[in-house]
Amino acid sequence: MPIRWGVISTANIAQKAVIPGIIESETGEVVAIASRNLDNAKEIAKKLDIPNTYGSYEDLLEDSNIDAVYIPLPNHLHKEWAIKAMEAGKHVLCEKPIALNAKEAQEMEEVSKKNDVILAEAFMYRYHPRYQMIQELIESGEIGEIRGIHGAFTFNNASDKTNVRYKKEWGGGSLYDVGVYPISAARMILKEEPQAATVHAYFSKEHDNVDMMASGILEFKQGVALTFDCGMWADFRNQLEILGTEGRIEVPSAFMVNQNEQDHFYVHTSNGAREVKVPYLNQYALQADALGNSIQTGTPLPFSSSDASLNMKVLDACLISADERRRVEI
């Protein structure tokens, strides 16, 4: 039986990426969508061929034919609706960041365990096989010992001042929205947690004083660091570089992938540079299948809900550092 998904909200990320990914997946189907505006839900359902619509999130959660729920609501609503969904017996895929802070994430994790349901954070890029390829290349020793990682994720959406990303109390800002990507990537690649964070940010009065740009350093063991920048009022970049003693790995399109040459990555050593080609795969479909297989077989997800809590712990430190302009131990 396929995993029957319900979607809470008609957010753009749901319409343009996650719902099409679930439809393309091998394990899932989207059977319902809810919006506080029923007409809006019906319009999106018609466009995406979703059979059931609801005019409230509560009504969707009462549908016994739904196995799992995807939540792309504004950040401050993640905890409330993820908990309600899990208490209704639904597995949950929640958009990143999973919550506003580590305390909320831990509360959500406890509810998932109590109700024996899966709680996953929607970092779709981690399910693409190229990161397994990169990990294997690192473990082969080709670039030597890792000395540092640099990540960048920036875009310019500053003119849309009504956007939920620019509401401070709702969890707005570039660290919440895109800074979490290089942070999670460094933790995944290094397989350890950082010890301290130092972040400098540009807070915009035009955008409810959220951080529109942030640059930071995370300190890992043995002198290794992630340096990163993230922004919502800057030219588009979506990059990752892993620097080793004998070479480096360059990922020009690190988090968002498209069907073009930028999906490949490059290895630079004393022997020259080479392109490593990777297959074009829908990472949103891969994400849905990872959850679907886990639900169907009981196989643990590669990234547990405790990973989401740990990532939020790092983000908490970054936010404090940016606000107070000081180094914060984690």
TrEMBL record:
Keywords: Oxidoreductase. Pfam families: GFO_IDH_MocA, GFO_IDH_MocA_C3. GO terms for molecular function: nucleotide binding; oxidoreductase activity. Coiled coil: none annotated. It comes from the Bacteria. Residues 131-250 form the GFO/IDH/MocA-like oxidoreductase domain. Residues 3-121 form the Gfo/Idh/MocA-like oxidoreductase N-terminal domain. The keyword Oxidoreductase applies. Belongs to the Gfo/Idh/MocA family. This is Predicted dehydrogenase.
